[in-house]
Amino acid sequence: MTAVFAAVGVGVSVGIIAAGGGFSAPGRPILTPPTAEDIWVVGGNIKDGTALDYSLTAKSEASSLDSAQVSMVFTEAGDDNWNVEFTIVNGTGQTVVENTMTMSKELTREGQLDESFRPYFDPIQSSIFAVREMEYGDSPKYLVVGAPWNQIFYQSSEVIVRVTGEETVQTQAGTFDAFVLSYKLADKTSKIWVVRDMPLPVKAEVYDPEDNLQYRYELVRASGV
């Protein structure tokens, strides 16, 4: 598990129960069952030539990025993989770092990681890509208000990461109709905004159990999606 989920430990729940023709999740019933059209898939809708640019501030165990600009360009690599060209500028006036790696259609890394690139890739993996690690039993990632996506065990508490609403979110890439994942480990609320036709979340602000910022990112530009 990555990001805040690695820090506090993530467990797998007993899953979502369909009962009486309805759809239910712990603590909150959903009267209308979700369908296949409500499922969101990490990496979905990426095409040959898709480009995604993000602004990112994130911390990993060994490194961090501060007000970084992260660009990803996807090209077909065969065998259901992508070649992903990363271009990263960590803060104002820093050296441009470039690296190309092979990733699966689900955006997991394939093959070896260039160790010189690890200090840059680890914060990306634990923030923009962190949603890959979310799981709630065997349930897909439903874009339905109330649907649980993840389960966090912290101290003696169990916290469910779920879709808590729909809202219009403003990013540097434009305005989107988004579903909001949210949860609280302390006083501050962590939020991740997911858009139905986008392959990764478009915005996030996530806090650790001490209410320190774990990561914050926002989509700056998207093309080919």
TrEMBL record:
Pfam families: DUF3108. InterPro entries: DUF3108 (IPR021457). This is DUF3108 domain-containing protein.
